[in-house]
Amino acid sequence: MTEDSQWMREVFDTTRGEEEPAWFPDAQAVIDGGDRRRRLRTVGAGSGSLAVVAAAAIVVGVAAPDGGGRSTTAPPTVPSTAPPTRSHGTVLDQVDFIPVLYKNMSLVSGGRPNSVDVPQPAVSDMAALLSELDPTSSHIAPIPTRIPVKAVPFGDTNGDNVAGLQVNADWTPDGEPAGQGGTNLPVTPNGNLITRFLDGDDPKFQPAMPGCGAGDDLGGAWSTLNPDPSVFNGPDRVAWSACDQRRLGDGSILASSVKSFGPFTAVFVTRQFPGGAGSVETLWLNYSIKDAAKDVAPNPDTVLSPSALTVQKLTAALSGNGIVPGLKAAAAVTVPPTLLQASDFGTGWKIDSTGTPNRPSNLVTDACAGDQSDLVGTTVPDYAFSGPTPSGLNVRADVLRLTVKTGTGAGKLANLREQAETGCGTTTVTSLPSGIGDGGFVESIPGLPSRPWNVFIRFGDTVIQISVNCPESSSGFTQADKQWLTDLAVKAATRFTAKS
After folding, report:
1. Which residue among 307, 408, 414, 499 is the one 20 to 30 A from 99 at the CA level?
2. CA pair distance 486, 151, nearest whole angstrom
């Protein structure tokens, strides 16, 4: 799974644990704490909560199908603002709504709020999904609510700011909470339905590519059915099925994938609305998610057998006419001409997220290194792209521009390289060919789950970083992919120096 997926998993575990307080992001903590998304889990158990906060700062967004900026056409509105009712109360009483991504972190204050605002269309979508999957309202076990959730219409500042919304639902044979053992893990049959709304396309899913994106983020975070015991937090040895895709009448793309091992089943379904209006996806597990949250294999005692939900039921529910984009679509993206454009990466590449300067300005190349606090400003622009590498790997790339104090650029790059070469973990560092900017290097970190590659190029007191994450299921970069990284550095230098 990706590092972001692990943090999202910790969000779930923290917010659902009976002994834990509810979590809400603190914008200043994000800035002060630094970007931990790409750090190894082995840094220590204490880093989890901070990493969760950092993950919330990630800006989610998408380009329109032509590879340019996202359409700003507003998705359909839902007339009523009243929470949809079910036979055992409203949908807000039965499931757990957790905003996990925001468009603008400056609008998110720390502390314990009086309520959590979520867009009404997402609430209505959840009610429609549950009505289709559990029409008698006899299987969804209500989740205790610590902070009230308030449904707000499009146009509400807080609701429109949500870029990613995760909704967790517990499923049991009788609708009562699953029994717990001495470890606080469920010991009776129960399943979990996890739904995620995004304010644009899911960057891990590309209609032109063979995969559904199930192996990353939502699907990869909790669906490890048969982990490799010889590897810490090892990858699943069970593969997802080939992606089944079809286009709906409204232009939406519906895609699904499944995998199973013994009695365990995982089903992943995603619906991408046309014109960059947003996406919604679901992950069904016929066993307790709490086991995965504790990094242990699924417990056979918690399996619902036969599985209560199938890929046919989930695709039917998610393809209904009543399902609309749940979040306000993000604004169109324009990348400055001095930074890499989608076309620079190659055919099939598109912009994935806005350039709002939300990312903390701490640059760390090693899991155990201290924060880098010598960058100018509190945040840095972060533009994200996705598409295929020359070998066909569907990857995500982040491009950042970082400025250091006057006269410290050369020392900064040297410190970054030393940090990469001497820090914990297995890291490979290769110098860029001479003549590219004022020097730079390429870093490979195979010890991280997504095996990222980082390219650093210096221009005086400015450092351009290109960070590329590989799919977990991939076999790694080929020589052609590595050459592609060097070529990107050349293009980045050409664009940056052309500004004058």
Report:
1. 307
2. 48
